[in-house]
Target: histidine kinase
Amino acid sequence: MRKSITTRYFYSTAILLLCSIALMGFIQLYLSMGYFRAENEATLLQTVDNTILVMKEAAGRADTENERVEDVTRGIVITSRATGTMIFFTDEQGSIILCSAADPSHYLGEMLPAKAMAQARGGVYTELGTLNGLLENRCYVAGKAMLDENGQVQGYAFAASDAQTLSEYVANLLSTFILSAGLMLMVSSVLSIVLTSRMTTPLRRISDAAKKFGSGDFSARVPVEGEDELAQLAVTFNNMAANLEKIDSSRHSFMGNIAHELRTPMTTIKGFIDGMLDGTIPPESRDHYLGIVSEEVGRLTRLIKNMLDITKLEAGEYQVNARNYDIWESITSVVFGAEQRLEANKIQISGFAPTKTMVYADEDLVYQVIYNIVDNAIKFCNVGGEIRFSVTQARGMVTVGIRNTGAGISADALPYVFDRFYKEDKSRGLNTMGSGLGLHICKVLINLSGGNIWAESKEGEYCQFNFTLPVAVQEKNKQKQTRSKPEEEKGDS
Model:
């Protein structure tokens, strides 16, 4: 069974919490037991000190031995009841002579372990045990030796506290801890489910949108909330979706354009050829219609060539052969080649003043770019309009501008004119001669040449395409030398 992210996150959080609580409980229990034992030992040692003090005071206050024993016994019993401990006193050999137990006869005359007396003589004796079976239950035991003015041992005072209190303390501690841990786990579980749901909701939305993409719906978008990593993922996903939708729209547009581009000439060719075969077109008119058929075949050839060019260029199969040459050579060649079309449309040429301007680029690529732009300029220039050329040089780049008067391009369409398959009929006129590939080819070619290309337009007035190319290599070297000369002159001065 497939587990969701929410379930896995919940299990992971629960395991982590359980391990943390168990570790915290162990540490708390260990520290509490140590603290409890230290407190017990401190209390027992204080009880022992008080017992020794009672013994000394009784010895100095009593007139007879019996009175001294009664005073000591009374003091030991009072101290024992006040502290909840059992106190017993031994002679210098370690034999118990006084005890605060309910049945002291059970302990009187018993001997303390030699180890306990040895440690008590050395300072303080502490133990959690039974004093080698002397005590019936495990107890906390503390003892000291009572010394006279000369430092001689007069006896030993011991106090014992039943260790059962520790078990009760630990039981109470564990019950409190388990209750607190259970409440904490319950609250943490609810918070974990809520937080996990909030974290995974964007992922579910992205998953749903991806499923829609898989079914062909590219309009789905993911709501963006916040600025965290999931929000950034949603933004990236939406950008990808927009690009996919744009590509899909371009593909549909391209298919429509290509279908139209292929259908129109093929219909024309088939109609004229069928007319020649069935005799509808008389023999004396065949040359005229064969010329039309030839033009339509040329249109098909150019369309297929453009598609192949784009495939090669974007696959990186074209080898750029850059060299130094005059950009005006390409401009002049294109203008002279279009002379008849210019005259037929009564288009005026301005700014055509060839001045040697060297660039470093592939001449064939640049020629195709200029040809495509001029071809578009002639198509969309108004009858009796103007095409203006400009060539300028600045900052190591040569900028070529080609402007034509006419309807121009709408502001909405301007950012997309270089997109593949894009063809805007409303602002460019209903022209069936284009496939929307020419300007995209121009952009790819200029990028290969190390330059940039952009369009400017004002609806109803003009449209201008500009592109840049690197200046010739020697021109760059000359500029470097020119910049370095003043520095050398400054150094000489």
